[in-house]
Amino acid sequence: MTRKGGGPEGLGGGTNYEAPRRHRWVADRPRLSERRWLLLMLAPFLVGVVVLVLVPFAVTMVLAFADYDLVRAPRWIGPANFVALVRDPAFRAALGNSLLFAAIAVPGRVLIAFGLALLLHRRARVAGTARTAAALPTAVPEVAYGLLFLWLFNPLYGPINQILTTGGTRGLTIFGRTPPQWLTDPQDAQAAIVIMSLFTIGEMFVILLAARRLLPREAYELAAIEDATTWDVLRRVTLPLMAPVLALLLIRDTVQSFQYSFVPTLVVTEGGPPPYATTHLSLFIYRNAFEYLRYGYAAAATLVMLALTVAAVLVQWRLIRRYRSLRPEG
Amino acid sequence: MPYGLLLDGVGVAYGSTEVLHDINLRVAKGELLVVLGPSGAGKSTLLRVVAGLEPATRGRVLITGRDVTGLRPGRRNVSMVFQSFALFPHLSVAENIGFGLLVRDVPRAAAAERARLAAEAVGCAHLLDRRPGQLSGGERQRVALARALVRQPDVFLLDEPLSNLDLELRVEMRAELRALHGRVGAATVHVTHDQTEALVLGDRIAVLRDGVIEQVGPPDEIWSRPATTFVARFVGSPAMNLLPADGLLRPLGEPSDAPRGADRLFGFRPEAVQLGWGEGEEGVVERVDVVGDDAYAYLRVAGQPVVARVRSGNRPAVGDKSLVAVWWSDVHLFDAASGRRVDPP
How many C-alpha atoms does A204 have within 13 Å on its Cβ side? Predict the structure, then answer.
């Protein structure tokens, strides 16, 4: 146990009574250097990263500059895919939809998760049940969740419009207006996708709940002694202290928003109403690759999505850096 | 006498667990009361009840004549220094000090000016632009003090404010706290488990045990006339010797009518014990702790433990036999059953 670092003996733990047998077992073998040992431990993960992420990524990079349909051999066509993308109204719609969705859904999701965390972090009788309820939708499998909302959003017998038309006549709301046509009106369908995303915030909620609970009680007691209002406490205590976590979640959710709209747009709205009201980048890529067999084209769109992701991370990373010094020290 | 703070029969209970029991305390304006007790005695709860962070189950809290029992913390005009200092890491020192003013809608410029004055009063004016993360423990302490002072509170509450500092700094801050208190003039309640701190700082000391006040009085009185065996043993290190009065050890100069019953306890401090006086009862030295010039000899006298302070130059060795004596005038008398002080007739 004299060696520093994570050598093989070090892994045996500090139990002396059991050490001799183990020691010999290890000592009989040639000693691995620490670096090799680390590499060995990392190997399963590295293999996964290489095979499942890096290789497909490299293939995508190459395919983006090729024409490929699974049948004929890929043909190098240079940047033609990107030129086509720029001219493609479907792609432009998808890009716009994805950005619009991120701009609305991400702040909404973070805000709701934050609000729920602030409401439910205390110990109270109903808080436990409410916490479970808040986290639950995230645990529902995505496709099942999508099918559920397909029913909820049904314009005729879906519960949402049933409620909205309560008290009205001839299928209108009580104010005499047509209820939202979730699946057939372009804007209503976009709203439907956003609404669906607002409930699957369980993980963010749990993270914010934990972060809120880590804040020192004294900070709030001090604020109470100084007669700070609820708004002052939120603005001057809670928000700044939780800003690093909130910023991190904003970044992460922006990146993920390009992806988690995929199943809803596929299952519930099928990218429509026509032509492309709820076609997001992810769905655009999926359709081009697996329905139209335009792999090169889809790969090019994937790269655009990747660039967007990187840009989002960079922008928000710069914002976060300002909060670096604000981290409460231990 | 005008009082700054009055606790009138205050009790706190969580369900059936009583944390504070019938606390009656009066702190004059400008007085520094130290609440002393072991951890779990209810010291912090007492402070929190005064601040309004914890509701009193019974009794009343009055601050300069106002009954504040039902008022929320912000309406009591108290300020508090927390053990952890509770500085906001995202605010500069100046903003931290001015926090209470800003949330009370004092204009920014006025708040900054008052924050600067408060910082000067505690000697941290040069830190105003820093953030708490860049400060040492002592500097944070000063900032926390400045923040508590900035508002001219009626009652100033300090919850173990020195316990997070190292010894040297603690001694220094103790003196500064004392001086600061002289200038502030608010009724101050200072909670600590450190008896030295209590003796040095307090105008009066309230010794708290299991939610009950055992004794309130000036440090001299707490030291020289402890009201209970608990106070006697809690204040002073090593703790006061307590022996049954019917034991073999007889104090020198004991009057003939002195109580000898088993219902009485003799108490005497280690510094009152005389070793090798030529009189007294024989004891065996079991352990000797040397602390610089002083040494503490732990003896066993007729089956009872006795601690004696001696000059370390002529300390006994372990196993030595020595005559143990104590003068009657140094002996405190307690009731064995209740632990209360009994004054000799």
Answer: 29
- Let me know: does B164 contact B170? Beta carbons within 8 Å: no
pLDDT on residue A167 = 76
Report the gap between the CA of A204 and the closest CA in chain B (Å).
23
Q: What is the pLDDT of residue B212?
A: 92
Is B88 in the A-facing interface, judged by CB distances under 8 Å? Answer: yes
Q: A316 near A326, Cβ under 8 Å?
A: no
Who contacts B115 (Cβ-Cβ below 8 Å, separation ≥6)?
Answer: B94, B95, B97, B98, B101, B128, B146, B150
DSSP secondary structure string, A122-184? S--TTHHHHHHHHHHHHHS-HHHHHHHHHHHT-TTT-HHHHHHTTT-STT--TTS-PPP-TTT
Secondary structure (H, E, C), A3-72: CCCCCCHHHHCCCCCCHHHHHHHHHCCCCCCHHHHHHHHHHHHHHHHHHHHHHHHHHHHHHCCEECCCCC
What one-letter code names the amino acid at A268?
V
Q: Give per-residue pLDDT as tens, A143-192.
A: 999 899 989 988 878 888 888 888 777 777 777 778 888 888 888 888 99
The contacts of residue A158 (CB under 8 Å, 6+ apart) are A151, A152, A182
Query: Rounded to the nearest 5 degrees, what angle is found at the Cα of A67, between the Cα atoms of A66 and A72?
Result: 120
Provide the β-strand partners of residue B308: B297
- DSSP letter at B341? B
Q: Report the residue from B102, B103, B133 with minimal CB separation from A325.
A: B133
Q: Is the peptide bond before B238 cis (omega within 30 degrees of 0)?
A: yes
Contacts of B48 in chain A (CB under 8 A): 221
Q: Closest by alpha carbon to A284, among A66, A94, A98?
A: A94
Q: Chunked in runs of 10, what are the mean pLDDT values of chain A (330 residues)?
A: 40 43 51 82 92 92 87 85 90 92 94 94 86 88 90 86 80 78 87 91 93 91 91 91 88 88 85 84 91 90 91 80 51
- Burial zone of A141 (CB within 10 Å; 0-12 exposed, 13-18 middle, 19+ buried): exposed
Chain position carrying tokens 């702190």: B27
What's this model's pTM, rounded to 2 decimal places?
Answer: 0.78
Rounded to two decimals, the ipTM of the complex is: 0.84
* CB contact at 8 A, B154 and B77: yes
Separation in Å, CA of B51 to nearest CA in chain A: 7
Which band of pLDDT confidence, cut at 50, 70 and 90, is reported for residue B1? Answer: low
Cβ distance of A241 and B52 shorter than 8 Å: no
* Cβ-defined contact of B80 to A225 (cutoff 8 Å): yes
Contact B57, B13 (CB under 8 A): yes
Dihedral sign from CA coordinates of B271, B273, B274, B275? negative
Q: Which helix (H) or strand (E) holds B183?
A: helix B167-184
| DSSP bridge pairs for B7 | B25, B61
Sequence-separated (6 or more) residues with CB below 8 Å from residue A125: none
Task: Give the three-class secondary structure for B268.
Answer: strand
The Cα B297–Cα B306 span in angstroms is 8
Q: Contact at 8 Å (CB) between B7 and B57?
A: no
Q: Which amino acid is at A67?
A: D
**Single-letter residue type at B37:** G
pLDDT band at B63 (very low <50, low <70, confident <90, very high): very high
